[in-house]
User: Which sequence fits this backbone?
């Protein structure tokens, strides 16, 4: 499965790695970006034929690792089937919000990211700026579901139940490639902000261990 996500807005550098006793100072900023991706991923789940139409048993979420040769693989009662999006949303709850991650460990999916990163500072200054990696860290954190309630400063807003994210965990990312260039002036006043970025993210999702369920992503 291949698709693109886009983002236009501030992308600030992550300031260190928050420890167990410290909150992430960028949590609200990351969640703002996460909400932008939610809207796009929600449309993907609505328009992709497999994601929008597939139904499964509530008991099958832990059974998605079954191999085609497993004699129990077709044993679920079809009368219990519900839309996949509802089953996943019930399994990923946090802070009063139901999340729907697309790339999940339990179905053996990984993804690669190719990022076109247009920014307002001149590209030749990348060695002086020294913050590209930390800004990409902010982006990757915004692509996954929060790992704790502290990373979700506000509850679900209108149209955010369930809340769609790319990843359940950023460890499912196997490759990141970023190309940077100058973001030339446009009509958006926010572009005067030095943290402003235009991003085009090409996402490729594939199974790393093929099962009966994730064949649709192969």
Assistant:
């Amino acid at each position: 499965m291949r698709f693109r996500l886009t983002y236009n807005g501030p992308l600030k550098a992550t300031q260190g790695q928050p420890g167990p006793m410290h909150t992430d100072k960028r949590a609200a900023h990351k969640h703002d970006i996460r909400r932008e991706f939610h809207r796009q991923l929600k449309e993907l789940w609505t328009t992709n034929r497999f994601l929008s139409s597939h139904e499964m048993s509530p008991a099958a979420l832990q059974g998605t690792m079954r191999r085609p040769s497993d004699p129990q693989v077709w044993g679920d009662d079809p009368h219990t089937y519900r839309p996949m999006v509802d089953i996943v949303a019930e399994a990923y709850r946090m802070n009063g919000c139901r999340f729907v991650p697309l790339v999940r460990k339990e179905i053996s999916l990984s993804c690669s990211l190719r990022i076109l990163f247009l920014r307002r500072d001149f590209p030749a200054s990348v060695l002086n700026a020294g913050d590209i990696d930390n800004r990409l860290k902010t982006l990757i954190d915004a692509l996954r579901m929060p790992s704790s309630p502290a990373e979700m400063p506000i509850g679900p807003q209108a149209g955010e139940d369930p809340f769609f994210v790319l990843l359940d965990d950023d460890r499912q990312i196997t490759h990141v490639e970023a190309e940077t260039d100058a973001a030339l002036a446009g009509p958006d006043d926010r572009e005067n902000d030095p943290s402003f970025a235009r991003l085009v993210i090409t996402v490729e999702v594939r199974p790393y261990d093929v099962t009966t369920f994730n064949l649709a992503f192969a």
Observations:
- The chain has a mean pLDDT of 84.
